[in-house]
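Researcher: I'd like a structural prediction for the single chain below. Treat it as a standalone chain; there are no partners to consider.
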Amino acid sequence: MDDLEPFSEQIERIKVKLPQARAADPACLVFGSKQHRYELGPPVAADTVTAFDARIGITLPAAYTAFVTQVGNGGARSGEAGAGPFYGLFALGTDDGKLIERFEHRLANPSPLRPGIEYEAWQETLRDLGNRTDEAAYLANRDRLFGGLLPLGHQGCGIYYELVLTGPHAGRIVNIDPDDQPPVFAHEANFLDYYERWLDEVIAGELQRNGPPFGYTLPGDDKALMAQFDRASDRQAQFQALHALSARGAFAPSTTTRLVELARGEDKEIAYRALDLLIDVAPAGAYEVLEPDLTGSPEQFCAAVKRIYEAGRLYNGTWGGDTRIRQVVIRRLGVIDDPLSFLCASSIVASGPAEDVAALEPYCDHTDPGIQTYAWAALSRWCANHPGGQGRFEARLLAGLGSDNASEISHALQGVSGLRGAAIEAGLLGVLESYAGVKRDGWSEGRIHDPLDARIAELGYSGRRAFARAHKSNAYRFWEFWKR
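Model: Treating it as a single chain, here is the predicted structure.
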């Protein structure tokens, strides 16, 4: 296969980078990687590819052929996907471990897909397929629309990334949601470029962020993307560059400076997006833009903390935060009089160390039940995410276990995860006895019973019965009755 020679250097780079990717993500935190664990099956013989080409009536793109014949094919075990984006790469000629005979008849069809199809145009295309009242016509139309595409792997929810085999975009990768969203082409020219970019982003730690999914944005580091923004001749290209920046885990100082300029600019759409990026990736730059609002009127302050909460995705607890932002928020917690604003502010505070989180303790006794609940939620979430650090708040958490407020008990159960000692066991026993006669429902199951079971298990007990007996309590009898 002389046409594979141009890929030889890239193939060798990929062979080196694959174990580097495995080492960079030992816990398999990248989406889907627990399925393939960065393992590939052995390559296939060139004769196997030639036979497959003859079977489908078309020659596979050379870059993909180079990969399956020189790097690997599918997973390390038969029927499993191998190291690759999302849930991994299918073996040649398979789909989720099954032969793709249901697609085989359309692989040689010319692909009509192109980059940049608008949502409305795609919806019209889907409507033109007809409906299943005429099954034969409907399936024939789908074969034409999705012809010339070889499924390479799935992303979940019925979405696949596929290799274009025919037409003007042959060799490229396209993301296909056959029932709703228009196809999204990856920007790489061929499969090897796409796969190597995936390895590079795994190694750099980019794909462990909760950003856009792999292959949906422009490639390049933050400085290259910022340069593309500045060179862009239309707004769509500008927004594509900004969208790609959201997948980057850090910005160079020059990128942060430029985004601060944009966030202060007169173009409201660009300014809004630039501030989102600063909040999410470079919060120190966001402080420069938001300082007047954070230190302004209570209304301005509350609007600013809500913006930080939303753009920083604080609801998933991964925001790195900024010390100056946290200190302003801590000083001004008292001006907040509505629970929603307090939810946002307390989440910002909980992005910091224990000495910052301590500022929330007084609000666990607030007269507003909403503010009280969110204070408890932020405190318990911090404790659950910082095993070993929650000892500072043990007294508060024990008080929560002994509360007559179910919400406080629920949050305290989350927060004491990892704590040990007689006082903790006594607190858990109190919850067990208080809720022994309370029949389970959807709320108590998830908020009381399940975390209580988890804490009992952490202490080394086999279950509620063993825990109750060890503490000479008869509560387990009620549990046995009510769980029926």
